[in-house]
Prior knowledge:
Blueprint: E1 2-7, E2 14-18, E3 23-25, H1 32-40, H2 54-60, E4 67-78, E5 81-94, E6 99-111, E7 114-127, E8 133-143, E9 148-158, E10 163-165, E11 171-176, E12 181-185, E13 187-190, E14 195-198, E15 202-209
Parallel strand pairs: 1-4
Antiparallel strand pairs: 2-15, 3-14, 4-5, 5-6, 6-7, 7-8, 8-9, 9-10, 9-11, 10-13, 11-12, 12-15, 13-14
Amino acid sequence: MRGSRTAPGGPRPGSAARRPGSSTAPVAAPPAAALCAVLAAAFLVSACSFDYGQALAEDLAERTPNAVFTGFTHTVVQDNRPILRIEAARAEIFDRKSLVRLSDVSFTEMRDGRVLAYGSADGASLRTDTEDAEFFGSVSLRSEEEGVSIRTAYLSWNASDRVLSGPEDGETGIERDDGSFLRGSGFRADARRKGISFSGKTEGLLVREAGE
């Protein structure tokens, strides 16, 4: 079943300093596309549902999706212009659990026809009631606006706290276009404070303009 729905809605010269160990750095917030993808999931649950009958539905609700799409594409439009596109090889929608599962997923955030951010993951789980999300497998996020890339094996988004977290025992890498990078475990990004931290062993290279 194919689904396609639309909903309203350079490097700089400078000096380098190596900073091993645990680190907290006031860099830009995580790419906006990761957050927008969660918000867009709220539009997915109305795709379609099937009446299994009350008793059977309750028995199968935990493991049977209400709808399955292959070759899935979902576009969010604002003021008659696309602002977010989500694509997945497969999408499973669980109405009763307020859950959307996506496999081989990619997303692109746009403004006035210009790509702001994009990303991909082997899989994702999106909660439509809380707007929390998990991305897993080979996770890659890129903000063209901020010049920042994130690569890891797992990311979770807590919508109420506006916090993006990586694996406690796995590495998350962050690279900027100016050559700066940070790599470590226990990654955490606070979107409100626009800062990141690593709770585990961390290494990196911070590039600053001359005179800073």
